[in-house]
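Form 7-S
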Amino acid sequence: MDVEVDGVLVAAHELKAPLAVLRQLALSFDGAGHEDERIRNEMVNVSERAIRQVNDLVKIKRLNDGLFAMEPVAVREVCDAVGRELKYLFREHEREFTMKFSNKTRLVSANRELLYSVIYNFLLNALHYSGVNTRSELVIKDVRGKVRVDIRDYGPSLPVNVWREIKQGWVEKPLSVAMRAGSSGLGLFIASRFSQYMGANVGAVRHRDGTSFYVELPISKQASLFEI
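Output:
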C-alpha cells in the first residue's frame, strides 16, 4: 500500500473518536421546537454516515487479516437492506429511489458486510449527485455468468480520467471528482477495494445525463442448491 493511501487510512482512524463525540453531542442536544429537532437529526445522521465511511476506510487496512470470510450471500436481501437504510435520505433530499430485480441467480459469492458497504457507497454517491426531483435506480440482473448490481444517477457525467481508472478494475487512491463538487472519491475508493478483495468487478458507464456504477459478483457455488 503506497504512502498516500496509508496516510488516508491513518487519518481516518484518528477521525473516528471526534466523530463519535460529535454524534453523542448531537444526541444530547435537547433544543425545543421543530427546527431544533430537524437540526439535531441532521447532525446525528451526518455524523453516523461519516463514522460509517471512516470504519470502512479502517477495514481496508485489515482486509488481509482473515476477518472477512467469503460465503453465499443473498444479493437481493443486501440491496433491500441498504435501500431501507437510505430511503429516508432520498425522501428528505427530494430524490426518488427505485429498485428492480431481474436476476434469476439469488446467491453470490461475497462477504455480506463488505458487499453492503459497496452498495451503500454507490447509492450514497448517486444521491449526492442527482438533481432535485430526479431518480436513482438500482437494478440487479444476470450478466455473462455473474450477477450485476447497477446503480444509475442523473447527475453530471463522470470525468473521463475517473471513468478510465474505474474501467481498469479498481480505483488506486481517493480521487477528487471534477464536476461533482465536494467529492473526495472516498466512496468509489472504498467500493473498489472491497470489490477487488471479493473477486468482483467494478465499472462505470458514462451517460449524457448521468452515470451508472456497477459491481459484478461471482455466482456462489451453492446457488444451484437453493434456487427455486
